[in-house]
Amino acid sequence: MPNFAFINNKLVNFKSAKIHIEDRGLQFADSVYEVIAVLDNNLIDLDFHLKRLKYSLRELEIKFTINKKNLTNIFLNLIKKNKTRNGIIYLQITRGIQFREHKYQKDLTPTLIVYTRNKSFNLPGKNYTGVNTITFQDLRWKRRDIKTVNLLANIIAANMAKKKNAYEAILIQNGKVTEGTSSNIWIIKRNNLITHPANSDILKGVTRTSLLKIIKKTKLKLIEKQFTHNQLINADEVFLTSSGSFITPILKIDNKKINNGKIGNITLKLAEMYTEACING
Ligand code: PDD
């Protein structure tokens, strides 16, 4: 357990950190969040995270002004205090506190919550592993581009995966793959690398955005286009990306092995390139 959290303007003891019972984040999931990886004390893809946070806040008209310097100070302070050399920073901003009513008032003061958690990552090297997944119906709302804590449909799917000893559930909408419950999904067929376009059907992942830059340095042909369940299970290689999982190979989907259940060469190469970019900034 971490020792400290940051709530509004204060560093507080993690165990006794509290928010109000009429905080709209609690009552309505009226709230946005980010998960930022910390690798060897480095904040990974910080600018992309702050840009997406700004976007989520703006789309929901939550009036919180992002000050990069202040937030970075809070992050670095927590990393130090909680000794989070490798792990994640969790940041959540709720609309604030108000008597319970669906309609919100304009002048609320947002609640800021930040803390860190230690975590070891699945990075290329001798312990690099691939994962099992399941497919599951995408039951979510229509604004998945906003990173809100409104995650019940993701939770139902993720727990179905857990019941089946799988790491992630790949969400299917009208026969097409959207994304994972907390990751973006990619398939490789011959020289083509295919992933869902960044529209309101998926979250535009920060790891996804970073990987797009890396792909330009390879001979792969990037195709941002919807793909079917059939294309998914017949792909040469499949992998997922997220700030918590970096680039993780998918070796099994439901009962079908991908690439004979082995980590594919292209996935491995991309993971190596991405990790290298994270370490060297
Ligand atoms: N989830 N899609 C969804 C639905 C997600 O929740 C996430 C991240 C991603 C990948 O985004 P990024 O590369 O920016 O992490 C895609 C975070 C890690 C979480 O909820 O824990």
List keywords for this structure.
binds N-(5'-phosphopyridoxyl)-D-alanine; 15 strands; D-amino Acid Aminotransferase, Chain A, domain 2; 27% helix; alpha+beta; six-stranded antiparallel β-sheet; D-amino Acid Aminotransferase, Chain A, domain 1; 281 residues; 2 domains
Helix and strand layout, with pairings?
Layout (H helix, E strand, L loop, with lengths): L3 E4 L2 E4 L10 H5 L2 E9 L2 E2 L2 H14 L8 H14 L5 E8 L16 E8 L12 E7 L14 H12 L4 E6 L2 E5 L3 E6 L2 E4 L10 H10 L5 E4 L4 H5 L3 E6 L3 E8 L2 E2 L7 H16 L1
Parallel strand pairs: 7-8, 7-14, 11-12
Antiparallel strand pairs: 1-2, 1-6, 3-4, 3-5, 5-6, 8-9, 10-11, 10-13, 13-14, 14-15
Helix pairs in contact: 5-7
Bound molecules: N-(5'-phosphopyridoxyl)-D-alanine.
Short recap of the structure:
With 281 residues, this protein is an alpha+beta fold. The chain has helices at 24-28, 46-59, 68-81, 152-163, 206-215, 229-233, 265-280, and strands at 4-7, 10-13, 31-39, 42-43, 87-94, 111-118, 131-137, 168-173, 176-180, 184-189, 192-195, 221-224, 237-242, 246-253, 256-257. Strand 7, helix 4 and strand 8 (168-173) form a beta-alpha-beta unit.
Q: Please, could you describe this protein's structure?
A:
With 281 residues, the protein is α+β, with helices and mostly antiparallel strands. It has two domains: 4-118, 2-Layer Sandwich (D-amino Acid Aminotransferase, Chain A, domain 1); 131-280, D-amino Acid Aminotransferase, Chain A, domain 2 (Alpha-Beta Barrel), CATH 3.20.10.10. Helix content is 27%, strand content 30%. Strands 7, 8, 9, 10, 11, 12, 13, 14 and 15 form a nine-stranded mixed β-sheet that branches. It has a six-stranded antiparallel β-sheet with strand order 2-1-6-5-3-4. A hairpin with a 2-residue loop joins β14 (246-253) and β15 (256-257). The protein is globular and about 55 Å long. The mean pLDDT is 97. The site of N-(5'-phosphopyridoxyl)-D-alanine (PDD) has 14 residues, from α5 and β13.
